[in-house]
Amino acid sequence: MPLRLAGEALHLEAECGVEEALALLEHLAAPQPPAIDLRTCTHLHTALVQVLAACRPRAVTLPDDVFLARWLMPLLDPSTP
Amino acid sequence: MNPLLACFVPESRDLLQAAAASLLRLEKDSHDEALINEVFRAVHTIKGSSGLFDAAPLTRLVHGAEDLLGEVRAKRLTLSSDMVDRLLDALDQVSTWVDALEQRECLPADAAAAAQEKLTALRAMMPAAGESAVVVPGRAGETHADWLSLLDEAEHRAVSQRLAGGEPVVAIRYTPDEGCFYRGEDPLHLLRQLPDLLALRIAPRTAWPDIAELDPYRCNLIFHAVAVMAHDAAAHLFRYVAEQAEIVQLSPSALPAADPAEDSPAALLCGLLAEQRRILALPAQDADEMRRRIAAVAGALANLSQSPALPLRQGDVDAAVSAALDSGRPQALLALLDRLEQCLTSPRAEPATRPAARVLKVDQERVDRLMNLIGELVVSKNALPFLARRAEEVHGSREMSREIKEQYAVIDRLAQEMQGAIMQVRMIPVSEVFERFPRLVRDLARQLDKRIELVITGEDTAADKTMIEALGDPLLHIVRNAIDHGVEPAAQREAAGKPDCATLRLSACQEGDQVVIEVADDGRGMDPARLRHLAVEKGLFDDAQAGRLSDQEAVNLIFRAGFSTAATVSDLSGRGVGMDVVRTTVDRLGGAVTVTSEVGRGTRVRLSLPLSMAIMRVMMVEAGGSLLGIPMDLIAETVRLDPRRVRTIKQAETFVLHDEVVPLRRLADLLGLPLPPADPDVHHAVLVARVGNAPVGLVVDRFREGMDVILKPLDGVLAGLRGYTGTALLGDGSVLLVLDLKELL
Asked: Looking at beta carbons, which residues of chain B come within 8 Å of A63?
């Protein structure tokens, strides 16, 4: 299961495919949205990227994956306006 | 059927049709890249989805076609007519296999061999390996400041270094189409495959909506990437989404020392606007200070409104400023700044993204069921006036009756709107039938060695689905006739002083509640003298009778069964079935067909059909104690006739109307119903109908009102019953039989 809720953080793990988009959106649309942990994520499908970008989760833990860390984070960083 | 297959079959049919149509257009203009992409994508999609089924030969064949198209797209090959032939051939084969898949869920046994044969034909068109292909240079040397302005300083330096080192660098702007997730595409995954990525920017195309309204499956991202690779390699990587990705080869000259974006007027304006925003955002000590700042910003904006680069008018500024001053808060001004910044930052050359077609494919049966239900609603609504009358007459409540009538008016309006809406659903454009003609005309013209240009106009004209579908075969006959008999061989045309390429016009338009379709050629036309001669030869007329036929009447002879004008029976047409079939079909649909022809100038066939045949206006009459409906469009007038004016000529009764002798028939008699006792003092109620252009008087017992009915054809055991078009349900629950006068008389 690529989506795993542990405590306050939602872990996106390994290869996250398009089929997780709705589930992810549901998590983030909840009244108390979880933080997002991408540490072990190896790939995020574009649809998930969209959900993250649109919902602006309050905190995102950097992925180990270099590609994601470098190119995706600027889009998700909550500190950018 | 396997649900995936049930999806695949109609989808690939649509794609095949689209691919064939685009190929034909490409044959004329082989440089239209959008068309090539369309064919390529269609074929590619079929290839992709066919892999899900046990249909390896199909996949292989489509793959072969895709390879060939890929060469064309890469401009290593130019599309020839021969190539189009083979590609169409391959698509036809695929289409047959799709039919087979639908029926038996597997391909025919000989599929592998057939695929091999077609593949060999396709491969023969491919350039042999090693044969040097013309490489079209990428659009090198273009400056793309808008790309580079996205880079930060470090990235900028990296790009300069790689370029200076003589490495190829491409900039890619990738705007995935909104529905790309449904096709299994993952843009980010594609970008991951760029080998040496120097920069990647991901941004939303439009501002994100509220979370509640976010559609995660609609792609709203745009990607800008800069990578170290050759243009060709990048184009290869993006080959399946070529029209969504703009790839530009960067050259060292494209990178000026200073960032060009800094100096562009847009960037300067952006800077100024950001500055105003900063001023407004500063915390203010008191309301006065805020007011001063608002005034300062107002001054700056007033100056900016002079700039032609900003869509800003002094009026906008004044309105925002006074709103801000009134409230003591800068919100109105901030909103204005937002709007201006958006205007400046939205990319100017954003490729027009096609709006995703939100189309629902619905089984026709469901629409028909809805239509039947609405039909029943219309009918049951008709019961309300009966009820109103009863309330008044039987129960003596006038007020109740009025209220029922008021409710009736509301339901009536709604029912009519529903009826209109469902009719709209059933309306399809005539292009559905026209679509097959470019292919047909091309093939026939090549086969007969004639040159024909097909001009189609008005293909958007819409009519009821049943009409459009029923039109296919008659039109096919007409077009074949035009090509086979109408259009002369090129040599003959030149001798007659005509351009050697013939023009065949296929046009559609709406005239009132009719849709009119015309097929016109500029061929040799029909010779009335020859038609008369033929009529005599076939024993239809003697010499004298034939001589009396007017030219137009002679031309109309072609509608007679068995009257084939072709000197030799050819493969295509001229087997004596044809125009008479056309006329019967069109008649059955309630339409009309006319032909006009001029020797040496061409022939024009005109079909006119009702837009929709589901709802019919009928006039109700009583005859022999039964209630019957007669289609309103046949009725010319109704008259009261003094029985003494009836003349009997031999056995036939007639009367004179508008100085014309009109035959008189008794409807009860025709239907075998009991005749009412003849009373010489009572005037006959006569309904004058036009049947086949000649008037005929029908004696009925009584006229009743006209009404709209949903006609249901007679089916089952009753299907063979002649003289009736169908039945309709009346408001009081009784069944109305609607007569088919053409058959009855």
From this structure: none
Which residues share a beta bridge with B60?
A: none
Chain A closest-CA separation from residue B719 CA (Å): 52
Instruction: Over range B61-69, report the average pLDDT.
Output: 86
Does residue A81 sit within a domain? no
Size of interface A-B (CB pairs under 8 A): 70
For range B378-389, the mean pLDDT: 80
Q: Could you say which of B176, B181, B214 has the minimum Cβ distance to residue A54?
A: B214
Q: Mean pLDDT: which of B199-203, B586-590, B615-619 is highest? A: B199-203
From B68, B65, B75, select the one nearest B32 (Cα to Cα).
B75
CB under 8 Å, gap of 24 or more: what pairs does B18-25 form?
Answer: B18/B42, B19/B43, B19/B91, B20/B88, B20/B91, B20/B439, B21/B435, B21/B438, B21/B439, B23/B84, B23/B87, B23/B88, B23/B91, B24/B84, B24/B438, B24/B439, B24/B442, B25/B438
Q: In the predicted model, what is the mean pLDDT of residues B105-129?
A: 80
Contact between B266 and B260 (Cβ < 8 Å): no
CA–CA separation, B179 vs B355, rounded Å? Answer: 10
Residue A14 lies in a domain: yes
CA separation (Å) from B315 to B290, B302, B309, B318, B642? 21, 9, 17, 5, 80
Q: Which residue of B has its CA nearest to A17?
A: B186
Q: In sequence order, what DSSP letters do the residues of B72-83 get, joined into one string?
A: HHTTSS---HHH
Q: What is the C-alpha to C-alpha distance for residues B38 and B46, in angstroms, rounded to an integer?
A: 12
Radius of gyration of chain B (CA): 36
Subunit contact B219:A75, Cβ cutoff 8 A: no
Residue B195 in contact with partner chain A when CB distance is under 8 A:
no
- Which residues of B, range 440-469, sit inside 8 Å of A by Cβ? none
Q: For B38-51, what is the mean pLDDT? A: 83
- A48, closest residue in chain B (CA to CA): B216
Look at chain A and report how many structural domains it folds into: 1
| Residue A40 lies inside a defined structural domain of this protein | yes
Is B370's pLDDT higher than 60?
yes
Give the best-scoring range by mean pLDDT among B74-78, B136-140, B351-355.
Answer: B74-78
User: Is residue A15 included in any domain, yes or no?
Assistant: yes
User: How many H helices and E strands in chain B?
Assistant: 27, 23
- pLDDT, residue B259, reads 44
pLDDT band at B574 (very low <50, low <70, confident <90, very high): very low
Q: Do A67 and B192 touch (CB under 8 A)?
A: yes
Q: What are the backbone dihedrals phi and psi of residue B91, each rounded to the nearest 5 degrees, phi first?
A: -65, -40
* The pLDDT of residue B505: 92
Q: Where are the beta strands (DSSP E) in B125-240?
A: 169-174, 197-204, 221-228
Residue of A26 and B321 predicted with greater confidence: A26
B120-124 long-range contacts, Cβ below 8 Å, gap at least 24?
Answer: B121/B86, B121/B89, B121/B90, B122/B64, B122/B65, B122/B67, B122/B68, B122/B86, B122/B87, B122/B90, B123/B64
pLDDT band at residue B374 under the 50/70/90 scheme: confident
Q: Tokens at residue A38, please?
A: 């991408």
CA end-to-end span of chain A, whole Å? 32
Confirm or reject contact between A28 and chain B (CB < 8 A). Answer: yes
Closest residue on chain B to A57 (Cα) = B211
Q: What is the mean pLDDT of chain B?
A: 79
Instruction: Domain of residue A64: give its range.
Output: 3-76
- Distance separating alpha carbons of residues B250 and B234, to the nearest angstrom: 13
Give per-residue pLDDT as tens, B458-499.
888 888 887 888 888 888 888 888 888 888 888 888 888 888
Q: Would you state the pLDDT for residue B33?
A: 80
**CA separation for the pair B547, B536 (Å, rounded):** 10
Chain-chain contact of B202 with A47 (C-beta, under 8 angstroms): no
Could you give the ipTM of this predicted complex? 0.92
Nearest-CB residue to B186 (from A28, A45, A67): A45
Under-70 pLDDT residues of chain A: 1, 77-81
